[in-house]
User: Fold Glyoxalase-like domain-containing protein from Streptomyces lomondensis.
Amino acid sequence: MRIHWTYAFADRPREAFDAACDFWTAATGTRLSELRGEHREFVTLLPDDADACVKAQAVRSGDGGAHLDFCVDDLPEFAASAVRLGARVVEDLGSLVVLRSPGGQLFCADPWRGQSSRPGVVRGSRLDQVCVDVPPSAYDAEVAFWSGLLAGWQSRPGALPEFHVVEPPPGLPVRLLLQRLGEERPASAHLDLACADVEATRAWHEELGARFVARFSGWTVMRDPAGGTYCLTTRDPETGKLRV
Assistant:
């Protein structure tokens, strides 16, 4: 079973969906596709010279967040593997399977349609990571689940004890970071951008309507105009690696 492509999904409340789409298209140098879905809740962010790897979804309840989509050549096999490792199927639509990890994080699987060309860096930054924020009680199980499911990906400890990286093979556009929270609360996820200059990207995003939340060593927490939390990291936007 091979994962051929990955999508990062920005999930945002319906009432703030237009603001989210305006911001993320500007931040990623993309344009919007036509809206899709029964409630016109899905949209793809289309780059000019590569295959898309970012989508957005309007959610009907809650604050939203983020999730990963995995494009595979055998959807039933991927879903069955996930279930054997502890996930459960939330909805099987035939051409799309929605699942929930043992720690409670939603993710999806859909057929690979030939995507292969990764979008480039935009003004010194690249949206290239979904970070799943995991409560302490579920962290070990979540690390084991994702490490087992994503065969061929490199699973390794992160730069700090509370992080674990699951990095895809070269060419796939979105990687996974697991972060152990300091408190017990439901799992959630957010988007991360690798930045050549975090402060320059922060200033640009603030011009686009984002707000600064907090700064840490290695990342800066921001909030987009729809209220969604995301991070600007000091990783190299070309390679995704930590700069030394």
User: Anything to note?
Assistant: The chain has two domains: 3-111, 125-233. Residues 125-233 form a domain with the 2,3-Dihydroxybiphenyl 1,2-Dioxygenase; domain 1 fold (CATH 3.10.180.10). The helical segments are 17-28, 75-84, 136-149, 198-207.
